[in-house]
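Pipeline run #58 for the internal structure catalog. This entry was flagged by the ingest filter as a single-chain record with no existing model, so it goes straight to prediction. Upstream metadata was stripped on purpose; only the residue string is passed forward. Reviewer on rotation: M.T. Logging verbosity set to normal.
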Amino acid sequence: MDTKKVSHSQQVCVANSLIFITSSSSLTGPISSNLFNAIMTVESNGNINAVGDGGKAIGPFQIHEVYWQDAAQHDLSIKADGTYQNCKGEGSIAYSERVMQACVGSFIDR
Protein backbone atom coordinates (compact mmCIF):
# COMPACT_ATOMS: atom_id res chain seq x y z
CA MET A 1 0.00 0.00 0.00
CA ASP A 2 1.28 3.46 -0.91
CA THR A 3 1.36 5.63 2.21
CA LYS A 4 2.52 8.81 0.49
CA LYS A 5 0.91 11.85 2.10
CA VAL A 6 -1.34 13.87 -0.19
CA SER A 7 -0.77 17.62 0.02
CA HIS A 8 -3.55 20.14 0.59
CA SER A 9 -3.08 21.51 -2.92
CA GLN A 10 -3.44 18.04 -4.40
CA GLN A 11 -6.63 17.52 -2.40
CA VAL A 12 -8.04 20.81 -3.70
CA CYS A 13 -7.06 19.96 -7.29
CA VAL A 14 -8.72 16.56 -7.02
CA ALA A 15 -11.84 18.08 -5.48
CA ASN A 16 -12.05 20.66 -8.26
CA SER A 17 -11.50 17.92 -10.85
CA LEU A 18 -14.36 15.90 -9.39
CA ILE A 19 -16.60 18.95 -9.51
CA PHE A 20 -15.62 19.40 -13.17
CA ILE A 21 -16.34 15.78 -13.99
CA THR A 22 -19.76 15.84 -12.34
CA SER A 23 -20.77 19.30 -13.58
CA SER A 24 -23.45 19.59 -16.22
CA SER A 25 -23.00 23.31 -16.83
CA SER A 26 -21.44 24.81 -19.92
CA LEU A 27 -17.76 25.38 -19.18
CA THR A 28 -15.12 27.60 -20.76
CA GLY A 29 -12.36 25.60 -19.06
CA PRO A 30 -12.06 22.94 -16.37
CA ILE A 31 -13.69 25.32 -13.86
CA SER A 32 -16.86 27.24 -14.71
CA SER A 33 -17.34 30.91 -13.87
CA ASN A 34 -20.16 29.94 -11.49
CA LEU A 35 -17.82 27.62 -9.62
CA PHE A 36 -15.13 30.32 -9.47
CA ASN A 37 -17.66 32.69 -7.92
CA ALA A 38 -18.75 30.08 -5.39
CA ILE A 39 -15.15 29.26 -4.39
CA MET A 40 -14.27 32.94 -4.02
CA THR A 41 -17.36 33.61 -1.90
CA VAL A 42 -16.59 30.73 0.45
CA GLU A 43 -12.85 31.37 0.67
CA SER A 44 -12.70 35.16 1.08
CA ASN A 45 -16.10 36.71 0.39
CA GLY A 46 -14.40 38.40 -2.57
CA ASN A 47 -11.58 40.02 -0.56
CA ILE A 48 -8.65 40.30 -2.99
CA ASN A 49 -6.25 41.00 -0.10
CA ALA A 50 -7.35 38.12 2.13
CA VAL A 51 -4.67 36.14 3.98
CA GLY A 52 -5.65 32.91 5.72
CA ASP A 53 -4.46 29.56 7.00
CA GLY A 54 -1.92 31.23 9.26
CA GLY A 55 -0.49 33.25 6.37
CA LYS A 56 -0.18 30.26 4.04
CA ALA A 57 -3.11 31.15 1.75
CA ILE A 58 -3.60 34.44 -0.08
CA GLY A 59 -6.07 36.30 -2.21
CA PRO A 60 -9.70 35.89 -3.14
CA PHE A 61 -9.34 32.12 -3.71
CA GLN A 62 -6.97 31.50 -0.76
CA ILE A 63 -4.28 29.91 -2.90
CA HIS A 64 -1.33 28.19 -1.22
CA GLU A 65 2.13 28.59 -2.73
CA VAL A 66 2.46 24.85 -3.39
CA TYR A 67 -0.78 24.99 -5.43
CA TRP A 68 0.68 27.89 -7.44
CA GLN A 69 3.87 25.89 -8.00
CA ASP A 70 1.86 22.90 -9.29
CA ALA A 71 -0.01 25.18 -11.70
CA ALA A 72 3.21 26.87 -12.89
CA GLN A 73 4.71 23.48 -13.73
CA HIS A 74 1.69 22.61 -15.84
CA ASP A 75 1.34 26.01 -17.55
CA LEU A 76 4.63 27.85 -17.98
CA SER A 77 2.82 31.13 -18.69
CA ILE A 78 1.73 31.25 -15.03
CA LYS A 79 5.32 31.77 -13.91
CA ALA A 80 6.20 33.92 -16.91
CA ASP A 81 3.32 36.32 -16.17
CA GLY A 82 3.75 36.67 -12.43
CA THR A 83 4.68 35.26 -9.07
CA TYR A 84 2.77 33.64 -6.24
CA GLN A 85 2.17 37.12 -4.82
CA ASN A 86 0.05 37.96 -7.89
CA CYS A 87 -2.62 35.70 -6.38
CA LYS A 88 -3.39 38.57 -3.98
CA GLY A 89 -4.29 42.21 -4.59
CA GLU A 90 -5.09 44.16 -7.76
CA GLY A 91 -5.53 41.85 -10.75
CA SER A 92 -5.49 38.74 -8.56
CA ILE A 93 -8.89 37.41 -9.58
CA ALA A 94 -7.99 36.87 -13.25
CA TYR A 95 -4.48 35.62 -12.42
CA SER A 96 -5.74 33.25 -9.72
CA GLU A 97 -8.40 31.86 -12.05
CA ARG A 98 -5.61 31.00 -14.51
CA VAL A 99 -3.66 29.33 -11.70
CA MET A 100 -6.67 27.25 -10.72
CA GLN A 101 -7.51 26.30 -14.32
CA ALA A 102 -3.90 25.16 -14.82
CA CYS A 103 -3.80 23.11 -11.64
CA VAL A 104 -7.09 21.35 -12.36
CA GLY A 105 -6.06 20.94 -15.99
CA SER A 106 -2.93 19.09 -14.88
CA PHE A 107 -5.12 16.38 -13.36
CA ILE A 108 -7.43 16.18 -16.37
CA ASP A 109 -4.46 15.80 -18.75
CA ARG A 110 -3.10 12.80 -16.84
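catalog note: Confidence is low (pLDDT under 50) at residues 21-27.
catalog note: The chain has one domain: 28-108.
status: ready for reviewer M.T.
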